[in-house]
Amino acid sequence: MVVGSMVIPKYSDPKTIYTPKDIQTDMMSEHGMNLTYMKAWRAKEKALQFLRGHPTDSYSKLPSYLYILEKTYLGSVVKLKKTDDDCFLYVFVVICTPISSWKYCRLVVVVDGTFLKSAYRGIMLTTCTMDAVGVILPLAYAVVDSKNDASWKWFFEQFKHAHGERPNMYVVSDRNEKSLNTLTKYARELSIVELLEYMRTLLERWTKEKLLKAKGTFTYLGFKFNKELDDNRTLSHKLRVRASTDYIYRVLDGVRRYIICLENKRCSCGQFQLDKLPCPYALAALRHRDGSFEQYCSPYYTRENLLRTYEIPVNPLPDERKWNVPQHISEEVVNPPI
Question: Of 7, 19, 183, 338, which residue is 20 to 30 A from 139 by alpha carbon distance?
Answer without folding.
Answer: 338
